[in-house]
Specification:
single chain, alpha/beta, eight-stranded mixed beta sheet, about 35% helix, about 25% strand, globular
Amino acid sequence: MAETEPAVLDIAELRTEFRIGGAWRAAVDGLSLRLARGETLALVGESGCGKSITALSIMGLVPHTVGRIAGGSIRLDGAELVGLAESRLEKLRGDRMAMIFQEPMTSLNPVMTIGDQVAEALRLHRGLSKAEAARRALSVLEEVKIPSAAARFHDYPHQFSGGMRQRVVIAIALACEPALLLADEPTTALDVTIQAQVLGLLADLKARHGMAMLFITHNLGVVAQIADRVAVMYAGQVVEQGRVEPLFADPRHPYTRALFAAIPRMDLPDQALTAIQGRVPPLDAMPAGCRFAPRCPAARAGCEAPQVLRDVGAGHEVRCHVAAG
């Protein structure tokens, strides 16, 4: 995204911490991202790298009892979200920004009909009457392609399949036509056929409504299908980012290359699957320098120092002195 384009979401040097053993430890450390209207940015990385915490930080859902946003800025349409009162955040959630969670069954209220759950956001944020909210909710359910939506309007979540429940969650998120949609691994629990349908649906709805979408995933194949740009995250930091096509054609960071090497290829029948040795470091044992260095086959002198993102051309940035050298 060009720096001159207006950003729906603008994150600068975000630091989100959790209290561990009496000390505050950063789960997201110095993260900066910008996302324009109509653009999809994929946030990729292993479990535990900070992807979901980034989304929860944007939504203001980091639990205050154990976590905090210790620094940085999160702006939605130019308005600062960090430090915003809970009452103000409640008005934004489900209205100007919405989130689709990974497991739809835990995102839906089991004792409310799916029609009432979609209509609830419209009554709360748009002030619609019960009848008008129901009419609008039915229209949204039809838009996300719920079969026989009118007949199923009063059904409960347990009466739907996993794929249909995820469509209901998407309908709730889109009911008020948000400017920003956060999708936290929304296809992980689905089989590949339903996954493809949901990805196609999200791409279609994003184009139709002109939303900005932050798509969180560990699946690089999904990124190729849906994203315009990709940011690879490791141990709380973005280690590589750029447009999907050039980054996929020439991944520069050793971690990004390791992720690609771990993908099975159908055109190589004798391929040996490659695993990334080691694990993501715990929050209370982060390396002082490059956080991937203890697992990196390309580690050398200089990796013991903290790394910064370096532009290697056309907005392709890498947090690695070896790859950028």
